[in-house]
Queue: 4 jobs
Job 1
Amino acid sequence: MGAPPKSDVPVITPDHLPEADGLIFGFPTRFGMMAAQFKAFFDSTGGLWRTQALAGKPAGIFYSTGSQGSGQETTALTAITQLTHHGMIFVPIGYTFGAGMFEMEQVKGGSPYGAGTFAGDGSRQPSEIEMAQAFHQGKIIATVAKKLKQSA
């Protein structure tokens, strides 16, 4: 939708998803929900849904919005339905990021549902605290995936 292609970023297909022990999906928000391109990606996972190939996999969500109040939490809530239909286990970060969840001195995205950032007009890059929250979320998903794999 007008964004330049990023040729250095690997592109996956739904067929790659079952190979993962855990998944973290990240997408921009459009009017309080995931962007249509990402919804189209999920729509293309019908074969995986039919066989429940992703059932039991831990999954998280992170997001980017243009401004505060642009739907970070509603984006997560509407995306959880995709995970649920696949039988995936939604793993939120809750308030485990500690004091970073209550930061009020700087602009910071994210919520108990997952890490987030405010992109503004697209020129703003994630802040150090937003990057730390995203790294924290990755550790949580990896820890849960490892525990599930060990118990299998």
Note: The beta strands are 23-30, 33-34, 58-65, 89-90, 116-118.
Job 2
Amino acid sequence: MGEPGGYRCVECNREAPELYRDYQRGVLRIAICKSCQKPVDKYIEYDPVIILINAILCKTQAYRHILFNTQINIHGKLCIFCLLCEAYLRWLQLQDSSQNTDPDDLIRYAKEWDFYRMFGIASLEQTAFLVGIFTALWLARPESLKTKSDFIFLLKALLLSSYGKLLLIPAVIWEHDYTPLCLKLIKVFVLTSNSQAIRVTLNLSQTLTLLAILSGLILENGIVYFFQRMGWNV
């Protein structure tokens, strides 16, 4: 993502002017951090698969590499695709919950409106979750979100760290008795990734990070409760 503040050392989180120096003819030398005397970003030599594995393991160094030292601009597309995955899962559950075998009823559930409704609800829940996080952080540590660029950078980090929602589709396609458990584990993984993204982006304590995640969950569940009171299946 590479903003704000330029490059960062993946070990100590200090700012760095460069990741490596090019001496021409294919000779590159990784920059050394002046603070910790370690390579600024060891991951520039790693295979993308190794970086992904480290990110899945929620390693702080891997998150710093991805968020500060790379140019990734798929946040919007990833967010839309994740919402589509979640809407599709809810749409399938809505069909399964119907015990009516009337063909007209099956046709009604097959209409696009049901899927679009699930997509809208998933979008509102995601928005509420993000608003809860930003509100908690702004109230507890206003100096961490001083500028518009700070808000945008954290938003991009949160959207990018929600990549775990892509696992919803395989969990549904290969349905088995443990699918409900898998869905819960995916939810926990996404929240853990979001928490790590907040910690790395704002350099906050684990307690404050968990408080922000909890605030987001409370507001998100408030939206779910509201729709349930309206009689909608969410």
Note: The first strand starts at residue 7 and ends at 8.
Job 3
Amino acid sequence: LASMATNENLPPNVIRQLAKELKNLDQSPPEGIRVIVNDDDFTSICADIDGPGGTPYENGVFRMKLVLSRDFPQSPPKGFFVTKIFHPNISSSGEICVNTLKKDWNPTHGLRHVLLVVRCLLIEPFPESALNEQAGKMLLENYADYARHARLYTSIHALKPKTKPKSGTISESTSVNVDQSSTTNLLPGSNSLDQNAPTEPTVGPSTTLPKKEGPVATKAPADKKKMDARKKSLKRL
């Protein structure tokens, strides 16, 4: 991995350490977090975070990004949410405000620790240090309104696509095939229309069936007359 990194802003030893961490995150991801590895650039690391259950972000998937500076790990990375989210500690532009990425930063903090802290922020926001003042004020004064607003953002911007059951998929593909075949019959120049239109304008099962029923319908009265005649002859005997 380290040999594939092309960014020259980071020292080789930092690139090797990042490559090791990213490999570990890829093989053993933290719960609810999936890191998107870009072998060509370790200075911008993306991750998809599942909204924790029991929060207004449940059932959502939020993409975030960590941007590493030239003197990383001596200085903390900057964190951003790419997915829009209504949260006290995340600005409308996506900037993340958390002490781990500011005054509490320690060069020994690894990427795993940073990602876990960000996900915990979705569980327990800190409205006292809000970047989104509206969300912070709403959280302190009326949690129900805050949760409703946050759920709305989640449903619009971060909702997971629902997987359709197999039976539904099969029925949908069948209906599409039916629609396509019927559309083909209506296309100009179609063989079925060119061959049938001049001779039989109303070709189809509904028109062929009466022709078969015609002889049967005329034969029934004749059979009845024969039966009546036989009955009369029997009476005479």
Note: Strands lie at 33-36, 44-50, 61-67, 78-81.
Job 4
Amino acid sequence: MSSPPLGRRSHEGSANASDSDSEDEPTLPLNQFYPYIRCALCCGFLIDATTITECLHTFCKSCIVKHFFYSNKCPTCSIVVHQTQPLYNIRPDRQLQDIVYKMVPFLEELEREQMCSFYKERGLDVPKPVIVSPPCPAVIKRQKKDNVPQSVFTVPPELDVSLLLEFVGAEEGICNYKPLERRYLRVSGEATVRHVELFIRRKMELSPSCQVDVVCGDHLLDHYQSLKEVQNFVGEDALQDGLLVLHFGLVLPSQS
């Protein structure tokens, strides 16, 4: 009995090996990836994936923007995203959005159709997709390096007062408080002295019986005064290198 040619035998062996390799590849159902590709607010697949920079939790852009209308905390971990403007600390996550579109069939096409119908029903022009420009030549990059570097981060115009908080000490009998590690702040001029006191209380973990006195120059400040009013009232004496300097101390409430 003649044996089959060597070439044919090797071909059949490689075919069987490839079939066994494909059978060994693990296949996972899509629902196992739901915690990573679905929004915790609407429970749908992520659309315009947007990540909170403070905790890296991701939601649909429209969902997280609506959430921040009535809360400044992350819906998942409840961390404070920003005391006054939480929308400053969110960023688009385009890589995750690309992954979602590749994992969920027809999701991108369906979202595009719904967006087009939305604009057409209202008589508006459909936005064109963003076209990524090709990289600039190396010569232009060298020219840009010679220019004066500009800051990537732009301070929002609402945050128009820079603070320096100086701790002057605590009255005898006050203990068990943490040091204030964050002494430099940039806040809105509409914020009041009461907001500064609440910030100090939270960061130093003060007891409710402890009183915080805030002083600017020689003036003991009232809770209702805004920081802009304090800066205008005290004048240049309150500023140090462009910073509004506030001294604060911890005292016990009067017994009277």
Note: The domain at 31-122 is CATH 3.30.40.10 (Herpes Virus-1).
